[in-house]
Amino acid sequence: MEPDRQLVVKSNHIIEASYRLSVAEQRVILSAIAQVRRDQPKITDEVLYSVTAAELAELCGTDPKTAYRDLQNAAERLQTRRVTLHLEPDGVTIRTKRRRVTCWVQTVDYIDQEGRIELRFGKDILPYLTGLQREFTRYALSDVAKMTSAHGIRLYELLVQWPEGHRVVALDDLRRWLQLEDRYPLMADLRRWVIEPAVQQINEHSPLMLTWSPRKAGRKVTHLVFDYAKKKPDKTASKAPGRPATKRKADKYTDADIARLGLARPGESWEAARTRLNQIPMELEP
After folding, report:
1. Based on the structure, what is the number of domains in the chain?
2. Same structural domain for residues 210 and 256?
């Protein structure tokens, strides 16, 4: 297994679908997706994809016994997991907006003595994983392999779908995509149990550095604003021995800076803009 070379490729319909999977289930599904051969003319739903506990332990940096247990639990539940696709009219195959509820997989075999499962993707889900010419998202499996938050994995996918480094997400959409339903009705609870842990996981385990801020209409939070960029190489790691470590610039954005440079977004107060901008990692002095 070569995790750094394995790519997860999904239609954007899957990225913005409504579903909920555990971390272990996410790892199994993503590992199988990374095995899909898109260079073949036609891939049927009869193809078996194999995932082993040993491979997951190596990929995710977990204890083999834990990986073995997680794989067994995932095998028992994956066949019942549903995903809701929100399909827009395309004038050809779909003429009206609709929701399609389908299964991730059609069969899952657990081979106990080998610590391995074999799965077949569902017939309706396979077109969103193969033959993708446009409107798809691609990232390395290793980008999310060590995350221990299912919400962190989902949020990462939603961000790399928009590589510009800035995405505004309606709060209602995020709740629907994560199938939160009526959970965490208070913004404080949503922030504590969903948003902040997901952001922390992305900053710790992925190639991105992420900040976020709420956007309000009156007193109600309606959108979440995410700003992100690729992490820069650690310049101190390659410095000559004995050379003093570089220091961060002490400057922070002031209201005058924000006004002079026009850094505030439409509808954003200077206080909110200052908080957002001052969270962004600063350049290291040469």
Report:
1. 3
2. no
